[in-house]
Specification:
heterodimer; A: mainly alpha; MetI-like fold; 13 helices; globular; B: mainly alpha; 2 domains
Chain lengths: 298, 311
């Protein structure tokens, strides 16, 4: 379909993008993977001792901080799915009840426009054990309610989850709302005339129809969780102790605090592998969808 | 599924034939209990979303004496803008007590070159990939698609080394260029998705007219891309302004963006936490993207969904 008119100009125009991809992305990735196999400490050391090429990885998985980070990643991932569920419920309600759609959408989405650092700072203040929400609850007689989650290593990660859900629900709501709008209104009125209950309508018709939207949301959520860094820094800075470390935090601190290139690279490679494990289904899904839509068109 | 669509069709027919005689120009529904329940629930959720904003706003306007009383929701007894002034002028980030204004200037200085660079590269690349016959466009786009999701940490260290060699590490320009590099894959794909829907006739006419790659871009394609440019622009402004990681790892002393200074101000406090100043600092950082969001929210929503689905 495209015009066959290959001259120098298009190739030339693509040079910067190709250079960036090759150097800043692919080259850099290869470099980091290579460095993770060496004994580099403060400065890159390009010699690989093949008898123990995996020593950085072996050290990594013997490091308690890294294991905590992996565990936290899992907790964050599972906990953050609340944002998808919450977003879906909000989207359904907004879609059902058209009144105030613009207002509610604006309110639910505004946290997304704000930096995660700001979000973290705000929630850090709400979680203050002496002056924050806990003091308010206690003053109105709810003394059994504890809201000092960030103060204890066991609960701090849940505080981060709450803040991320607050921040991210609007995003999933927007995606879900777009998905719901794509559902033919005829199906809706048909189901109502056929006397399908609301619950059944959503669980048996809407959710199966929106499975791709859900999958997209889940993958975006996992990618976001692997990248989670800002919110941890702003809310707990990894503490108390090392209880809220996540892989992204671990990698940055291995490079900046410990100045250990090889170790930080190994952690980054594991992050890449986790991302790839999440990402692969998305690629396959897109390819499959393309093939399917191609078949429909043909 | 087929059963539903069959019954659906009959239902629609029924609905339309029945509805025809009693047609009201605008049927006004009375508020039913279910609607009330939904609206109450949504309002409660809206309150949940608004509580943190309300609390930071009132806290930033209180005196520390009142904050120590622990009444987080109460309105200020004495309204004061002193915390805002202190946060802007004298808040301490490490040993520098020059306030957030330094960060504000740096963030702006990072924002503009980075916007120009990233929009220029990605729009031209998207145009070339969508409308010109580039043989390796498919594999290249697949590569871009992968690059768009790579975690920053895996390319961070080599980029630091590279920018050190280019003598831009720790400068505002360095941060701006890194932002442009990191956003290039996703933005290119968004532009490419937009340009590929441009009708073939327009391109054919352009070929008859001049046949020049650049003239077609500047005279025909660019004037047609107003909408996508605004969407991408808003997406980029908010993401660069809100970025923390790149600013932290590539910013030098005195070139850090506002978010990094905010984090320093808040995290590195010793002694009593001055919550009113912290909240004022947080609000100062949040205001620019919030203003954009409340005025151009439509484009903002388009941006995030474009970035999410088409990316």
């Amino acid at each position: 379909m495209r015009i066959r008119w290959s001259r120098w100009a298009p190739q030339l125009a693509l040079t910067p993008a190709v250079a960036i991809t090759m150097v800043a992305f692919l080259g850099s990735m290869v470099w980091t993977i290579y460095i993770s196999l060496t004994r580099s400490r403060r400065f890159p050391d390009y010699e690989i001792d093949w008898s123990e090429w995996g020593r950085q990885y072996a050290r990594l998985f013997n490091d308690d901080a890294w294991l905590i980070a992996l565990k936290n990643l899992l907790i964050l991932g599972v906990g953050s799915t609340l944002a998808i569920g919450f977003g879906f419920i909000l989207a359904c309600l907004i879609d059902r009840e058209k009144r105030g759609e613009g207002f509610f959408r604006t309110v639910f989405l505004y946290p997304l426009a704000v930096s995660l650092i700001v979000t973290g700072v705000a929630w850090r203040w709400l979680f203050d054990p002496n002056l924050g929400l806990q003091a308010f609850f206690h003053s109105i007689g709810l003394t059994w309610l504890r809201f000092d989650w960030l103060a204890s290593g066991d609960t701090a990660i849940y505080g981060i989850i709450l803040a991320s859900v607050w921040q991210g629900s609007g995003f999933y709501m927007a995606l879900m709302l777009a998905g719901l709008k794509g559902i033919n209104t005829e199906i809706w009125s048909a189901a109502r005339l056929d006397g399908v209950s609301t619950w059944k309508f959503y669980t048996e018709i809407v959710i199966p129809m929106m499975r791709f939207t859900f999958l997209t949301c889940a993958i975006l959520l996992s990618l976001g969780v692997v990248k989670a860094y800002d919110i941890v820094v702003a809310m707990t800075n990894g503490g108390p102790g090392q209880s809220t470390w996540v892989p992204a935090y671990f990698t940055i601190s291995a490079y900046w605090q410990k100045s250990n290139l090889g170790y930080a690279s190994a952690a980054a490679v594991i992050m890449l592998l986790i991302t790839a494990a999440v990402f692969l289904p998305m690629v396959l899904l897109t390819l499959w969808q393309q093939r399917r839509s191609g078949r429909v068109a043909a | 599924m087929s059963q539903i669509s069959v019954t659906g069709q009959t239902a629609i027919e029924r609905a339309t034939t029945e509805a025809r005689p009693v047609y009201f120009p605008r049927r006004k529904k009375g508020i039913r209990p279910r609607s009330i329940a939904i609206l109450v629930f949504l309002t409660m959720c809206a309150a949940f979303f608004c509580v943190p904003l309300y609390v930071i706003v009132v806290t930033s306007l209180k005196t520390m004496d009142q904050i120590r009383l622990g009444e987080i929701f109460s309105l200020p007894e004495v309204w004061t803008v002193q915390p805002w002034l202190t946060a802007w002028n004298d808040a301490c980030s490490g040993i520098n007590c020059n306030g957030l204004k330094v960060g504000f200037v740096n963030s702006l200085a990072i924002l503009f070159p980075s916007l120009i660079l990233s929009l220029a590269i990605s729009s031209v690349t998207g145009y070339a990939l969508a409308l010109w016959n580039v043989r390796w466009a498919g594999p290249f786009m697949f590569l871009l698609f992968m690059c768009a999701f790579v975690p920053f940490q895996i390319i961070m260290i080599p980029l630091i080394v590279l920018s050190g060699m280019l003598k831009i590490y720790g400068t505002v320009w360095g941060i701006a260029i890194v932002h442009a590099v990191l956003s290039m894959p996703l933005l290119t794909l968004i532009f490419r998705n937009y340009y590929k829907d441009i009708p073939n006739e327009i391109m054919r006419a352009a070929m008859m007219d001049s046949g020049s790659f650049w003239r077609t871009f500047f005279e025909i394609i660019l004037p047609m891309s107003g909408n996508i440019l605004i969407v991408v622009l808003i997406m980029q402004i908010t993401s660069i302004w809100n970025d923390f990681l790149v600013g932290l790892t590539f910013g030098g002393l005195g070139t850090q963006p506002m978010t990094v200074i905010l984090a320093n101000v808040v995290i590195t406090t010793t002694g009593e936490v001055v919550y009113n100043e912290n909240m004022a600092a947080a609000l100062l950082t949040a205001i620019p993207p919030l203003v954009i969001y409340f005025f151009l929210g439509k484009f903002f929503v388009q941006g995030i969904t474009a970035g999410a689905i088409k990316g």
